[in-house]
Amino acid sequence: MPQHTGLAPKTPWVELCTTDDDWKSADPALLRTFLGQLQLIRTFEQVVLDLAGAGLVHGPAHSSIGQEGGAVGSIVGLRASDAINGSHRGHHQFLAKAIGFVRPDLGDLSELVDTATEDVLYRTLAEILGLAPGFCHGRGGSMHLQWFEAGALGTNAIVGGGVPLAAGNAWSQRHAGTSDVTVSYFGDGATNIGSVLETMNLAAAWNLPLVFFIENNLYAVSTRVDEVTAEERLSGRGAGFGIPAWRVDGMDPLAVHLAMEEALELARNGGGPAVIEAETYRYFHQNGPFSGSAFGYRTKEEETQWRARDPLDRVATEMLERGLIDEAGLASVKEQAKAAMERIVNRLVEADPETPGKRRIRPDLWPDTAFVNVGVRGDGSELEQYPALEPANYTGEFEERRFIDVVAGVMERRMENDHRIVVLGEDIHHLKGGTNGATRGLVERFPDRVLGTPISENAFAGLGGGIALDTRFIPVIEFMYPDFLWVAADQLFNQIGKARHMFGGQNPVPLVMRTKVAIGSGYGSQHLMDPAGIMATNPGWRIVAPSCAADYIGLMNAALALKDPVLVIEHVDLYPRRDQVPAGELDYILPPGQAVLRCEGTQATVISYLSMVHHCDRALDETGLEADLIDLRWLDRASIDWDTIGESVRKTNAVVIVEQGAEGTSYGAWLADEIQRRYFDWLDQPVTRVTGQEASPSISKVLERAAVAGYEEVVGAFEGVRRGLGEM
Predict the structure, then answer these.
(1) How distant is the alpha carbon of residue 220 from its chain centre?
(2) pLDDT in tens, 359-386
(3) Fewer CB within 10 Å: N-end or C-end of the chain?
(4) pTM, entire model
């Protein structure tokens, strides 16, 4: 018979419950703050539901009524410099942090709402209504509430999507030398999301001061916890990653507070992350003013039982029993909150003159429609302080260097001069510079700033995003292959790319992501894509694609100086190439909006990027086509050089776009559409596109070559243009 030895979790996993003595010994000021914040948040949420019922909330109204105890209990002990983020149901957490920021101790409850507190309530409600006075100028609405000054990093509509970002903020807090902590709030449904579990592993491995706060309200919309997991005690997720965990009654604010105090002590003193599971209950359906029983997935009996444990009533009862307040005082607190919300509603809403008995949003509070695209990215003015250099026009001395050595050399130079830069990705700290040598020498010089990550693209991409949003550091994320971007698509597209705009266009997102196109290396369908076309269609990202080492220097320097997320695309065919670069020059930038003419002619405008620029150059010589060859360098919508393209098109009246990758994810498809709309009157023929096939490249050398565009396809296209001109 085999021998069985019982195993225990590596770290503590406990259930914490309060006793009568805990309530007796609680600081009266703490209990007053509990009561005041709970009443303000409860009243606020009731108003939101009333406005939603009147059709004045455009979009969802995810009420937190019933769950306020977990938010207030866990946040009341945080510092202003501590940070939180949360999920789509995050009004209560946002308000607890924001109110606590402007008024840490509510003190005398006879003056519950001062000017600063009322302003927080006003701006929060304005944001939920989509109005200009809101914290995000109406862009965020109910699900995207952010106030960086107060440590509210932003609530998030993607289930579990904000958790990796919180890890990035926690990393920045620790590496900035503080003892601050980040708390990430999410629901029971998110505990089964890969990005959450990846982040738990990464936070534990890196010992980050991050508290994972699980609001277990038993239902993900209408699906009960026990339907989707065999371990209903969701704090058990912590034990699996070596993270200490607490399970508490989320309807008991004091129990939550005491558990959070223990978790904060651990995190502040270098003990790493913690998990707190608060068992709580939302009184209403996922969205709107109806109960869950109205939809049949909960019983009225269950709802009645949970309402009997109301956190607001619990605090009021405990305070009454201890003589800390009387019934008149409770009534006054409730009336003050109600009066404040009535004042706020009257500032935002008025009688509808066209429909008697109805109300409408005050028209002057809507955002100006001209604001629609403001803040998708910054204006790039931060680059004005850096020296610009155009390698094509450089008259100084050159030196020969391998492209891949320049990649590592530029990053070493920047990390030497800017302590904020941190590099992270898979295997970048081993193999003498990663899989291609792009980080060679960096870990030896900057061991604390070259971070080899677990294989967890969602976690480390989101962690990089959180670092960027904090702005004390500049993350450089390496994706070993561009196909892996899809694994982290939520973080790249929904989070990092949208963050600046979604939260009102106010906060920069300085982040660089490197990846390489490896077409021709035989790695098959899941390693060989060109990401330019996909990234160009997603807002917020800038994109650079250098064809030579001299350009790489200027483009990477510009990417690191910009306060927007920038994708830097490299090509493995260029890595061994020996290029001429300005001797001793590693500090210049190539700003957005600057393409370069590699050669000039009058018969066609050829547009390309990366290694295909060199194929085009050779093909022009072979075919005799006299063309402008434009090396784009900057590919994103805001950074492309339309002046150079337009001048050439008006001269040649014919365009050929050349790229290597698959037709379906083509960058040229977007570019051709834009060119034909901008310059239709100057075109004598449709835009010609050289691109790969529909299929992804295969492992077979023959099928891989057939799937992509190469030199022969470029030659064929150029010959076709010449035939169209009647020269062949």
Answers:
(1) 23
(2) 999 999 999 999 999 999 999 999 999 9
(3) N
(4) 0.95
Question: Residue 413: exposed, middle, or buried by beta-carbon count in 10 A (0-12, 13-18, 19+)?
Answer: middle
15-371: in CATH 3.40.50.970: yes
**Is 527 a residue of the active site?**
yes
Please give the structure tokens belonging to residue 215.
């609001």
pLDDT, tens digit, 9 for 90 and up, residues 421-461:
999 999 999 988 888 889 999 999 999 999 999 999 999 99
Judge whether 494 and 132 are in contact, CB under 8 Å.
Answer: no
Q: Please give the radius of gyration of the chain, using alpha carbons only, rounded to the nearest integer.
A: 29
- Residue 727 is predicted with a pLDDT of 67
Q: Which of 527, 571, 614, 615 is catalytic?
A: 527
Domain 381-582 listed as CATH 3.40.50.970: yes
Q: Tell me, what's the pLDDT at 728?
A: 54
Which residues, 6 or more positions from 266, have their beta carbon under 8 angstroms from its beta carbon?
A: 244, 272, 274
Distances (CA, A) of 288 to 247, 667, 676: 29, 42, 46
Where do the structural domains in the chain lie, given as residue ranges? 15-371, 381-582, 596-724
Question: Structurally, what CATH architecture does the domain formed by 596-724 represent?
Answer: 3-Layer(aba) Sandwich (3.40)
Beta carbons of 92 and 66 less than 8 angstroms apart: no
Q: How far apart are CA 214 and CA 275, in angstroms?
A: 7
- The CA–CA distances, whole Å, from 265 to 77, 239, 261, 283, 307 equal 11, 19, 6, 32, 32
Interatomic CA distance for residues 633 and 74, integer angstroms: 49
The Cα–Cα gap between 162 and 463 comes to 10
- pLDDT tens-digit map of 519-561: 988 888 888 899 999 999 999 999 999 999 999 999 999 999 9
The single-letter code of the amino acid at 15 is: E
- Can you tell me the distance from the alpha carbon of 279 to that of 67, in angstroms, rounded to the nearest whole number? 9
φ/ψ of 248, rounded to 5, equals: -135, 165
What is the structure's pLDDT at 128?
Answer: 97
Longest CA span, the chain = 100
